[in-house]
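Sample A.
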Amino acid sequence: MKKIKTVLLFALLITLSACSVKPENVLVQMTDHSPSQMMGYIIQSNGKTIVVDGGTREDKDALLEELKKIDDDNVVDAWLLTHYHKDHTGALAAYLDSGADDLDIESIYYDFPNENFVATYEPNRLEDLTNITSSLEQHVSQDTLHKNEAGEKIELGDTVIDIVRVFNPLITENAGNNSSTVYKIETNGNKILFLGDLGLEGGEQLLSESKKEIENMDYVQMAHHG
């Protein structure tokens, strides 16, 4: 069996500023611009640009700057959100709330619990949910928003995104982190798994229901920032 290369993507940062010619295939891990932890990735492969989460509100400007370095057209073909916590969704919410038109965001993918679920099982993070859902509802057309479904496959040219796992309302322990969508991205001959902040309970569900689907990954973003 192929050796599984489980890699902390904290070590995988491709710096573009030193490059005079834009590379065709890029994976960038964003760094934080506030005291908070955060998670944000940019992938570009064969002309298609993907953002995973993006970080806090304070990370917005750095994220936009990096995207402009990578893509002359400033198009994000798919913005993938793992879960509603502000250290993952704040940058997108801040950009949308600003009214700026720096980016052309083709599609936003997410699956969040409803307010009643969060108010019951993680009330201290209810504001995180209402901030991002309000920004999406007020500033993004319905055609751009896509509610994730487990087993869904998204094709962007040569890049394929599989939605392996979505929010499970039966898991109420560590509710916000365990609501994370799990994305598998196959691009440029590599398989990358994004776990978001998936907790123990969600991880056990993932292994129980989708173990074969996530075997032999080339890179794994470790849950809860490693």
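Sample B, a different protein:
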Amino acid sequence: MVQLFKFLLKAEKKPLRAYLRNAFIDSLRLTVRGGHGGNGTPKYGGIGGQGGCVYFVAKDGISLRNVSQRYKTKRISASSGEDSSKVRILGRRGMDERVEVPLGVQVLGERGQLLGDLNEDNATCIAAGGGAGGCTGNNFLGAPGDHRNVSLDLKLIADVGLVGFPNAGKSTLLKAISNAKPKIASYPFTTIRPQIGTVDYPDLRRITIADLPGLIEGAHANIGMGHKFLKHVERTRLLLVMVDIFGFRLSAQHAKRNCLENIYALNKELELYDKTLLDKPCVLLLNKMDLKGASEFLKGVKPTIKNLESGLENCPEEIRPSKLIKFERIIPISAQNVKRIDVVKEELRDVLDSLAEEKYLPDALEIREQLQRKVGERGPKIT
């Protein structure tokens, strides 16, 4: 028995499985401390150097896992300022600690207050300032730097956010339409972390699509994947809602909902989480149209899908939204049909291009008019 116990103690630990080593991280808690200010010299009136600060910089290609591996203790400190001396009256400033984080990170304080929103490349946020150096105002004693706990909350930045209930075919679509390689199976919750795919076009145009974990009813209240899913929708420019034409049932304890009811349920969850999400442009994909009876069913529900308000009377009260989503396009597809996938790619590009024109064309026309006026003012006057 003793020898067996010794054998178990000497047994090597099994290496962490690959899918756990590479797990997606979208939140990270850190302790940051600014450098202590250097002491001054009363005899010479010397001033101590200010402590260094800890700041975050948004960089493309960085992940929160990189940050976690670099700072394994989850503690980040800047160096202290140099003390004043007769050789150097003005002490040197402490070195800053520069922490690179992924695009889309929000820096939150201990009470959840927003300290910085890093959604652009090279955007910067100071998380902990350095202490002041010693001088006459503080009896030549350097002050300690800021010390606080912060949370890095990542919200993915993508052109398109793929939204739907589990097993709707989102991962199959993402694999077919882009270069992503998501896990695919015939059971719910295959996708347990966000996946981002890139759609490349012959003219070098590129669109990014985020496949997000399957939603369930109550996600707005953080049930299931809850807020871990919904927060990633906020930064997308276009919502791509995908539903099974024959409906969905999560388990035997849940009611079976048809295609139309699933649309209302998704609408309700987005509304309860953040009403402004419903103002985003949206495209609806009706999947599994290759199955028998799909075309006939679509003929019956398509008028209601085009005018969701007309079906509210028959919608169950628990999933009835008060603000309805508006679909830019309604596209019947089969995620395994290459021709229909090409249609989706072109439709997505068309919608995104139209949005860009609406956003930037008015500004371009105004600039052109201003230039024409200036040229007219400077041009030769004809009498």
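Observation for Sample B: The chain has two domains: 24-154, 160-359.
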